[in-house]
Amino acid sequence: MAELHCHTTASDGVVSPEELVAIAEHLGLDVLAVTDHDTIDGALRARDHALATGARVEVIVGMEITTRRQDHVVGLFLDRAPRIFGSVPDTVDEIQAQGGLAIVAHPFLGLPSSISAKRLREALQRCSFDGIEAENPYMRQGARDRLLGFLDDHGDEVGAPIGASDAHFGDLAKAVTLFEGRSAADLRRAIETRSAVPAVGRVRHPRPGLTAHLHNQYRSLLRLPVIRAGTLWRQWRNG
């Protein structure tokens, strides 16, 4: 069982990378992909902490990448942070060029960060994804119906359906990806062979309190723009 989309204090999450590993370990997850917005720093910290403490859960280095039109793409199995604010096809190409897997993040939700069916069809003219989030806690029935129709027409181009929580409060495993085996290599094989199964998690977390929401909003509205500005400056400086 894998959690493939979650955030830490390295972006707009409210728990540290180390705390996230402890939660994943407590829940009995086999694989945890840490996918902070536009940085892999939290994922690297989580991976190193899991290795140093002998945690059973295996941590994948990931990142949720902001594209030029604000559509979000999750990269898994990353060696380095992809460039931000590029086109969706260019972002997918950069993820895959370093051996990573490109996942459509929380599609069809009607939010600025959620790609629409029209824009996804446009992107598929130039690229193919490795997976698409087909189950997450924010997906209402209308979005689910639209996605199922889209998969009927374009399933080969968007890859394996997966489940992921997009957790910001340490509330992991609200949606999970099931796969045969236990390791990150087993998970990757399941995604590539499209044998992974998205599922609703059975974990029930306490509702985040006001303080947690305020921390999330502070990091999302104030801290993340600073992180992105610094990243864009380094991209421009390095060509």
Characterization of the model:
This protein is an alpha/beta fold and 239 residues long. It has one domain: Metal-dependent hydrolases (TIM Barrel, Alpha-Beta Barrel). 41% of the residues lie in helices and 17% in strands. The protein is built from seven helices and nine strands. It has helices spanning 17-27, 41-53, 88-97, 117-124, 141-158, 184-192, 210-237; strands at residues 2-3, 31-34, 58-66, 72-76, 101-104, 131-135, 160-163, 175-178, 197-200. The strands form two sheets. It has a seven-stranded mixed sheet, sandwiched between helices. Helix 5 (141-158) links the parallel strand 6 and strand 7. The longest helix has 28 residues, at 210-237. It is globular. The termini are far apart.
Map the helices and strands.
Layout: E1 2-3, H1 17-27, E2 31-34, H2 41-53, E3 58-66, E4 72-76, H3 88-97, E5 101-104, H4 117-124, E6 131-135, H5 141-158, E7 160-163, E8 175-178, H6 184-192, E9 197-200, H7 210-237
Parallel strand pairs: 1-2, 2-3, 5-6, 6-7
Antiparallel strand pairs: 3-4, 4-5, 8-9
Helix pairs in contact: 1-2
Uncertain runs: none
Structural class: alpha/beta
What is the H level of CATH, i.e. the homologous superfamily?
Metal-dependent hydrolases
Residue-averaged pLDDT, rounded? 95
Bulk shape: globular
Main sheet attributes: strand count, strand direction, barrel closure: 7 strands, mixed
The amount of helix comes to 40-55%
CATH fold-level topology = TIM Barrel
Q: In which order are the strands of the major sheet placed? A: 1-2-3-4-5-6-7
Order of helices and strands: EHEHEEHEHEHEEHEH
What fraction of the residues are assigned to beta strands by DSSP? 15-25%
Tell me the number of structural domains. 1
Cα-atom radius of gyration? 16 Å
Number of helices: 7
Strand tally is 9
Architecture (CATH level 2) name: Alpha-Beta Barrel
